[in-house]
């Protein structure tokens, strides 16, 4: 166990949605959860949200009216499983004074505004984001460029191999770092040199391990990787811990627990991410503290 430190000394990661493509539901999906991608990252007291899948609704319920007046949502890309939670984000419904900013890096510098306006409008959706009480602002950048915020926070980015493109993110705080690498299809040769450099020496990498190596040949070209390739990449980059993420919706608790056990033979610090699991990275030379929070029951 680590010693107790002030929140400003920590990076805290909480998984609110860990599934890919579509939600999973039923008693066989309780341990790992069924919502699509959404990860909360706090650098000290500074809140960032990565992806706006259906897990965003549960995060919004927890934040409620206590959410910051300015909320930053970093989008890996705009496939439905990564944006479907946006109109259900409770802080957007509670205050006209709140600003919610999206950041999108795979559209040649364009923001997500036009695609989101097409999706969240009739006949596909009854309410436009612009009709919600909060004000939405949409920012575009080019993956590979750093994001630098008004408070000086700097987030590194990397273009990922995914149909239509996607963006990976790297956060630094008080000597610790965490990388989000989803959605990604591994390339040949592997590990990719540029991606290896991007995640090198990170304390935690959240990685798209949607398939196993046995399953992958039938899914080639779909834009996703395997936990085996994640372990290979993490070892090449001297990563301390690996969180396998973006689970295939047909992989139930039994499958994922078996995969985790096999994975930890190759890399003992690797694990399969669970919904509402919390990881805390403390400053200085502390060990990583991880707390698993049981999923809420329906």
TrEMBL record:
Molecular function as annotated in GO: 3'-tRNA processing endoribonuclease activity
Domain Metallo-beta-lactamase: 35-222
This protein's name: MBL fold metallo-hydrolase
The keyword Transcription is annotated on this UniProt entry: no
Stored PANTHER family: ZINC PHOSPHODIESTERASE ELAC PROTEIN 1
Keyword set, alphabetical order: Hydrolase
Annotated SUPFAM superfamilies: Metallo-hydrolase/oxidoreductase
Residue stretches in coiled coil: none
SMART domains xref list: Lactamase_B
A Pfam family matched in the record: Lactamase_B_2
Superkingdom, natural source: Bacteria
InterPro entries, alphabetized: Metallo-B-lactamas, RibonucZ/Hydroxyglut_hydro
